[in-house]
């Protein structure tokens, strides 16, 4: 069976498998076909793939002959049309929101798995690309902010006077937020964090940050540990509290998301305009509507000396470890669907079912079925 690894599109530096992961696939007696230069942006040249037993092919050859293609970003529709009828496509397809692609896969009787659909359960933790990539993102967001800040992070007592520690406010203490807290603390900042889920409070405190409490949040136990939409009154109370904290902050990192909804707006324009010049806001939710009223997706803007960075794919800026983690998640998932060198899809398994967008044109994941009906 041939597994294809293609070069990701422009702007995506990660690769689905690094050479070290290819070695495992070869041990499983699979043929690994790698597109020329697929790993170069993740600092893995073709020779390293060859050394692990893979072979190098053209993109067209892989598209037309592979049995399974594992990627990160989705393929173009014209490329999907080139694949074999029995192909199994895998990637982070954003299948619930990229409805053009999902419709195309369904209409063309394809079989596809979308890794962001992996259920957030204990058994699926080792396959959870959302958590892996959020870990990279939270870490990188702090480094980016630190490099832009015209001040130190830690406290310094020097012969040239004392430096007070930077003050960092993290909005949303999920996987990315908690990693951002841990990273900012390691750099010596004074960290404050806020989340609507009370469960996040203990985790924030255990990382040495202070929890900003805004009472009266709505929680829903059936939401699988995720946040739910809040009332207008609560959101306003929250914005007022954030405003007070923002006046003293040097950095705000926003990570607040609600699955399937526009990101909640937490930082108002008046808040940005009241912040100290030189402060930095990193809005990780910019592509889903933004947590900051002024952020623009994939742009850095300057509002009276406050720089706002709207960024959605920070994981691509750390392609080596991000690819390593993505590949490990893939290997753990593939163990569920590859037996003795062949694909066996068992839709009784909740992880296989939950992650499968469609099988030969039939929607499989309950979340996709809900979307298409
Ligand atoms: P996410 O990316 O959907 O959201 C990020 C954070 O934003 C969440 O903590 C959410 O509560 C918060 N948020 C939403 N609205 C907000 C608002 N108005 N104000 C402030 N914060 C707001 O979430 P995520 O990081 O992917 O995961 C969230 C939670 O899901 C985790 O902390 C955990 O409980 C659970 N989870 C479980 C598993 C597992 O069991 N395998 C894996 C990952 C996550």
Description:
It is a single chain. The chain is α/β, with parallel strands linked by helices and 373 residues long. Helices cover 34% and strands 18% of the residues. It has 13 helices and 19 strands. Strands 3-2-1-4-5-6-18-19 form an 8-stranded mixed sheet, with helices on both faces. Helix 1 (19-27) runs parallel beside helix 11 (319-337), helix 6 (129-148) runs parallel beside helix 7 and helix 6 runs antiparallel to helix 11. It is globular and about 65 Å long. The two termini are 34 Å apart. It binds nicotinamide-adenine-dinucleotide. The site of nicotinamide-adenine-dinucleotide has 31 residues, from helix 6 and helix 7. Residues 4-137 form the Alanine dehydrogenase/pyridine nucleotide transhydrogenase N-terminal domain. GO terms for molecular function: NADP binding; oxidoreductase activity; proton-translocating NAD(P)+ transhydrogenase activity. Keywords: NAD, NADP, Nucleotide-binding, Translocase. Belongs to the AlaDH/PNT family.
List cofactors, ions and other ligands: nicotinamide-adenine-dinucleotide
Beta-strand portion reads 15-25%
> SS-based structural class?
alpha/beta
Low-confidence stretches: none
For the biggest sheet, the summary is: 8 strands, mixed
Q: Could you tell me the number of beta strands?
A: 19
Specify the overall morphology. globular
Radius of gyration, taken over Cα atoms and rounded to an integer in Å: 22 Å
Per DSSP, the total helix count is: 13
Please bin the fraction of helical residues: 25-40%
In round numbers, the mean pLDDT is 95
Distance between the termini: 34 Å
Which sequence of strands runs across the widest sheet?
3-2-1-4-5-6-18-19
Domain Alanine dehydrogenase/pyridine nucleotide transhydrogenase NAD(H)-binding: 146-310
InterPro entries: Ala_DH/PNT_CS2, AlaDH/PNT_N, AlaDH/PNT_NAD(H)-bd, NAD(P)-bd_dom_sf
Keywords: NAD, NADP, Nucleotide-binding, Translocase
EC number: 7.1.1.1
């Amino acid at each position: 069976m041939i597994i294809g690894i293609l070069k990701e599109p422009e702007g995506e530096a990660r690769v689905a498998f690094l050479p070290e992961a290819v070695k495992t696939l070869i041990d499983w007696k699979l043929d690994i076909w790698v597109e020329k230069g697929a790993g170069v942006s993740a600092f893995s040249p073709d020779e390293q793939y060859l050394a692990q037993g893979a072979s190098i092919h053209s993109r067209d050859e892989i598209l037309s002959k592979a049995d399974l293609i594992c990627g990160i970003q989705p393929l173009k529709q014209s490329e999907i049309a080139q694949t074999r009828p029995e192909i199994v496509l895998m990637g982070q397809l954003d299948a619930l929101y990229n409805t053009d692609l999902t419709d195309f896969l369904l209409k063309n009787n394809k079989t596809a798995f979308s890794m962001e659909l992996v259920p957030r359960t204990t058994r699926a933790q080792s396959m959870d690309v959302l958590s892996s990539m959020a870990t990279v993102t939270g870490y990188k967001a702090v480094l980016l902010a630190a490099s832009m800040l015209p001040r130190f992070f830690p406290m310094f007592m020097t012969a040239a006077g004392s430096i007070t520690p930077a003050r960092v406010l993290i909005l949303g203490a999920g996987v990315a937020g908690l990693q951002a807290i841990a990273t900012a603390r390691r750099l010596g900042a004074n960290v404050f964090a806020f989340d609507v889920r009370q469960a996040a409070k203990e985790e924030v405190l255990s990382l040495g940050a202070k929890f900003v409490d805004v009472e009266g949040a709505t929680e829903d136990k059936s939401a699988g540990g995720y946040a739910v939409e809040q009332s207008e009154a609560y959101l306003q109370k929250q914005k007022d509290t954030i405003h007070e904290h923002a006046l003293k902050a040097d950095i705000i990192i926003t990570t607040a998301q609600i699955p399937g909804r526009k990101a909640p707006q937490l930082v108002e324009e008046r808040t940005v305009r009241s912040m100290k010049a030189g402060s930095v806001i990193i809005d990780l939710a910019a592509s889903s509507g933004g947590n900051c009223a002024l952020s623009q997706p994939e742009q850095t803007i300057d509002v009276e000396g406050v720089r706002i960075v709207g960024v959605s794919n920070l994981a691509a800026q750390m392609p080596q470890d991000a690819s390593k983690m993505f590949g490990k998640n893939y290997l753990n998932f593939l163990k569920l669907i590859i037996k003795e060198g062949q694909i066996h899809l068992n839709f009784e398994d909740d992880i296989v079912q939950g992650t499968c967008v469609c099988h030969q044109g039939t929607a499989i994941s309950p979340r996709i079925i809900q979307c298409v009906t």
